[in-house]
Amino acid sequence: MVLNLLRRDKVFQPYEKVSEYKIERKLGEGRFGICYLISQGSQFYILKQLKRGMLKESGAKVVYEEEVLKDLWHGSIPRFISRIDQDNLCGYILEYKEGKTFEDIIYLDKHKFSREEIYGVGRQLVDILNYLHSKGIVHRDIRVPNTLYDGHSVNLVDFGLARWIDNKKYQSDMDFAFLGDFIIHLYYTTFVAKSRKKLPWYKELDLTNEEQLFLKKLMGVEARFGNIAEVEQAFNETYKRF
């Protein structure tokens, strides 16, 4: 096993076979792994290949994603299908979710999100967090590269940093600042700078008093929400006109 961990990671090419699956294309690469779009017949899946170096360095930490995903069943979260542990590959197969990352939508497509769209996206993220926290899980990485959108549905992916809530090191309110930062990213898609002077987001964005207070409480600028139920209630009150 030690020798295997010291070997370089194999990068799979299109049309190569992995177990009963065919590699379609490489989707991306992060610190912990490499993701591929794969297929079995007409059905698509995601292969997440865990990097050997990170397996050696982080040990049990890299298996949290597998443990967490096995415990989840939600339409906006990819289902865990199976684990693959071969000589040249350690990883797992996940359900394929349609859509582009919000990172690509914002920075490549230059899409400008309306208030109605921000409400729709935010509503779905709050619902996802409500589910995760009810299962005792904190995601800790709700960012624009880790969320998919097809114009209607939001999917939260990449659970590599997710942990079981212990109310000590891993607390549910860790997700609130990530949610706030995510929503602020959406507001900035319509922002037009009026001066060269850089101001805090709550001074330069065109926000209602209710929106500003809601986001400040998510970000911890004001007293932070105590739990996801408080977040949900405040979200509904803030965006009730939508």
UniProtKB/TrEMBL annotation:
The keyword Transferase applies. PROSITE patterns: PROTEIN_KINASE_ATP, PROTEIN_KINASE_DOM. One of its GO terms (molecular function) is protein kinase activity. The keyword Amino-acid biosynthesis does not apply. It comes from the Bacteria. Residues 21-242 form the Protein kinase domain. ATP binds at residue 48. Keywords: ATP-binding, Kinase, Nucleotide-binding, Transferase. InterPro entries: Kinase-like_dom_sf (IPR011009), Prot_kinase_dom (IPR000719), Protein_kinase_ATP_BS (IPR017441). This is Protein kinase.
